[in-house]
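Exercise 3.2. Students should predict the tertiary structure of the chain below and write it as structure tokens, then compare their answer with the key that follows.

Predict this chain's 3D structure.
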Amino acid sequence: MKRKRRNKGGTRFYMMMSIICLTVLFIGYSYVYNLSEKRKSGQDITTISILYNEGSDESKTSAIDKIMSYFNIFLEKTFKEKESSNKLIESVDKSNTEVFKKIESNETEEKDLEIYNEREEKKPITNTPLFISSNRHENFFKIIESSPASRSSAPRNIINDAASVNEKLNVVIFHTHATEAYFPHVEGNYRSHDETYNVMGVGNKITSNLKSLGIDVNHLKDYNDYPDYNSSYANSSYAVSQVLSNSKKNVLIDIHRDGAEENSSYEQFLSRVKTTIINDKTAATCTLVVGDKNGNSEELKKNAQLLFNISEQMYPGLFRDVIVRPGAYFNQYYSDYALLLEVGSTLNHIDEVNYTIELLTDIMVEYIDEIANTN
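Answer key:
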């Protein structure tokens, strides 16, 4: 009986195809890995991106172009923001969502933006859910420390010391929730790209004031809460991580505005404390917030209290209190001098906020000068 000969040619073909596939896979993996490393280091990576317009004929686009477009989207989603830190990033509870119809812009109308209820504060991503009461005020407590030595109620002239300050400090102003806006801009749940009314505009004015005194300020003008509000803290974390200094003290100021649900107990509280009279003019009040989940929370509390004490001696009543948020980070692990500053609330008119900006500039000058001259 003759024995059937094996089809050696077929076996060799499949072996060659396997080797080719493995080689292509290895090259592709190496390429993606190299791009990811460049993205993590902050380098700009150019890839192919195809945008399909409504009513366009997708059949005219080749399969290769489509694949490369999806490849680009994969790279952006995977490597742009998520590799900046191994820390846990705050997330917003999706169970309490609120969609507003339109976000106003000075130039054009933007697409719809999904907004989450901020008063349910951002939570770190954990396996164990964190219970947060709907009454935000009851979850906070004031940090009480002994009063510092008395100081002048007027800001020092820091212009002569600006060069020394700039050598010692890396001052960064940024906005995790840049679209937060004030009355009378009530559309879109008090959210806007119009910098006449939002906290980005607040940052612009404080930055301009400090620079006029010779202080270097890096103002990050990223709208980290748009279009994906739920990625706000991940976005601001990435932005801040790109500008940290290894040789200077990093003074990181995240400017927000306060707010509350309509007819809630916290709104009633804010209505009683939203303003104060300073030099016969009405100013919007402020708060400082510290996340107690940070390993450096004690230093954060101490420096927040320092700013609070300076404010109390210069403009008593401008700051309501320093509050600590249980189980939160707020990206404050980057520096002992990381501040989350809430300027006014949805109940404040922008004119009241603009006056507060002038007072805050004086306070920040004193704070920055003291930080720069403290070992």
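Discussion points: DSSP finds nine helices and twelve strands in the chain. The CA atoms of residues 35 and 375 lie 41 Å apart.
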